[in-house]
Structure formats: C-alpha cells, structure tokens
C-alpha cells in the first residue's frame, strides 16, 4: 500500500473526535507520519473548512476517521468529508460497507478499526483496504474484548491486506513490537491526544500525562450520562475519576436515573464545558501511563522513530 510505504515513519495518529483536529494531523504529517482528523457525530461544513486546510498544510497525505453507527441516518456526512479529498477514510464501529463504497468510488483508500473476529470478517467482506487491529487496552471507544497483541496475530494470519496495530502503543518499544509481528504501521491515540496541537482542554492533557497504566476504566457510563446513543457493544476507555468510581459498575441504575431526570446529564455537560476532569470523561488508554508529558507531535514522532534501535537490538540478540 503506497500510502504507507511513502511515509518516513510508519506511524498514524488516531482520528480522535475532540482531540485530533487539523493542527494535530498537520503536525504529524509534517513530521513524517500520517495525520488523521477525527470527525464527531455532528459534523459541520464550517468545522471541515477550518480544520482540513490545517491537516493538509504540509502537502503530505492526510486522513479522516468517522463512526459507522452515526451514518445509519444517511451518508451525507461521508460525502461532506470526501468533498475535501482525504487520502484515507477510516469507518469504524458498525457496518463500514456503504461509506466504504462511496470512498472507493471517489478513489479514496479505506480503513476500519476491528476489535474482534466478527469485525475482521466484516472488514474483509467490505473489502476494506487497511485493517486496523484495535485492542481493548486502547483509549476512547471500541470493543472491550480482545487485547492488541492477540488480535494482531489473529488478523495477520487471516489476511494479506496491510494491517495496522492500535491500542496501547505509545513508545518506540511498542512500535517495534507491532512492526516485528508484521504490522505495516502503528496507530497511536492517547499519546497524541496529550500533544500541544491536540484540541483537548489542557486539564485533559495533564490528566493523561499524570496517569499510571492502571488508572483507566472501560465503561459506558459517560455515554449513558450524556445520552449519546453509542451501540451498547462499544464502551469507552477513560481515566478513572470520582464519576466512574460511582457509576461504572451501575450502568442500569445510571440509565434509569438519566431517563427520569436531567441533573446528571446537565452536570456532565457542564463538566465537559469547563474541563472538570473529576466528572468529565478523559478518554485515554492504558498507554496514558506511558505518556510522560504534554509535548509537540514532532517530539512524539521523533521519540517513536527510535523503534529502529529496538528492532536492531532484537535482531542482533536473536539472529
Ligand atoms: C481521546 C480519544 C478520542 C477518540 N476518538 C475516536 C474517534 O472519534 N473515532 C475513532 O475511530 N476512534 C477514536 N478513538 C480511538 C482511537 O482511534 C484508537 O483506537 C485508540 O486511541 C488507540 O489506542 P491508544 O489510545 O492506546 O493509542 C479515540 C481515542 C481517544 C484516546
């Protein structure tokens, strides 16, 4: 896949709605990786007109990621994105077929994040070009079923298509590990979410940079509280906080409460607006514990690019 072979570094930033806008994507592409923007549920032409030029500023390829379940209401958002001529369109979390067909018709490479064996079948059936194995340790939404390494081994044995590894990769060692296993590239979310160029509030970036590897929780609690109709099979991994301590294990009760009164939803929306991380979601994976500080995307790419040293050390030790 020339789109990946042409990269100076085999690294893509994950398309993270609310974090990966044009500035982050543009910085990643300019540093030799592949920049992606994350498209939120309610997309506007105004947002695209502002963010896409930033993503494309380096003149290097860029991509966009969308949520398939949002497109059950119609494919107009896909047409809006395709009008801006991305080089890659990733459609995850639901049936990618109709959106992928539109992308293919427009000559755009397609990708899909898969989280279990059924997703892999779906991606192969829809003839998706790049399969992104997204393990349950990853940040943000996805399946909470299979970890990155087992999923990667499964998919690499099942398809000849290029496979990208995602979930829990935040250091040069992690990049080396997935490339050694046969991945074509690494897809990194959490570490880039904490970058200077990320759209996330400073309090969220600081929460990621100061979290430990065991500080995250996989839960639907934030979506239930905000009344976001994510299909129940997709939860989200976020930094544990007083809100998750109270509700993560009481989803049915939370649902009843939200159905009968607005107080929790209002409190969650206010916390999101003010960046109050004791209530609001800080979506991040276990790799938050490997994210040392808020820094530029170029510095992260330069750090991850040291994967070559680790591959070389393993080769010298075991050839
Ligand atoms: C803050 C945040 C927001 C995310 N938003 C999206 C999104 O809008 N669309 C998407 O396909 N994936 C999204 N993801 C998931 C990523 O694409 C990816 O699966 C994940 O970040 C990989 O794991 P890592 O965080 O350990 O690197 C998001 C992840 C994070 C951390």
Structural features:
single chain; alpha/beta; 2 domains; eight-stranded parallel β-sheet
CATH fold naming of the largest domain: TIM Barrel
CATH domain class of the largest domain: Alpha Beta
Specify Rg, calculated over alpha carbons: 19 Å
User: Strand-residue fraction?
Assistant: 15-25%
**Low confidence ranges:** none
Question: Helicity range of the residues?
Answer: 40-55%
What does the model show?
There is one protein chain. The chain has 319 residues and is α/β, with parallel strands linked by helices. The protein folds into two domains: 7-200 and 292-312, TIM Barrel, CATH 3.20.20; 204-274, no CATH class. Helix content is 43%, strand content 15%. The protein is built from 16 helices and eleven strands. The strands form two sheets. Strands 1-9-8-6-5-4-3-2 form an eight-stranded parallel sheet. A three-stranded antiparallel sheet has the order 7-11-10. Helix 2 packs parallel to helix 3 and helix 8 (172-181) packs across helix 16. It is globular, with a radius of gyration of 19 Å. The mean pLDDT is 97. The structure holds flavin mononucleotide. Flavin mononucleotide (FMN) is lined by residues 14-17, 19, 38, 65, 67, 92, 113, 134, 138-142, 166-169, 188-190, 193, 283-285, 287. Flavin mononucleotide binds next to strand 3, strand 7 and helix 9.
What secondary-structure arrangement, pairings included, does this model have?
Elements: H1 2-5, E1 11-13, H2 22-30, E2 35-38, H3 45-55, E3 62-67, H4 76-82, E4 88-92, H5 97-105, E5 109-114, H6 117-125, E6 130-134, E7 140-142, H7 148-158, E8 163-166, H8 172-181, E9 185-188, H9 190-193, H10 202-210, E10 216-219, H11 221-226, E11 235-239, H12 242-247, H13 251-260, H14 263-274, H15 297-304, H16 307-318
Helix pairs in contact: 2-3, 8-16
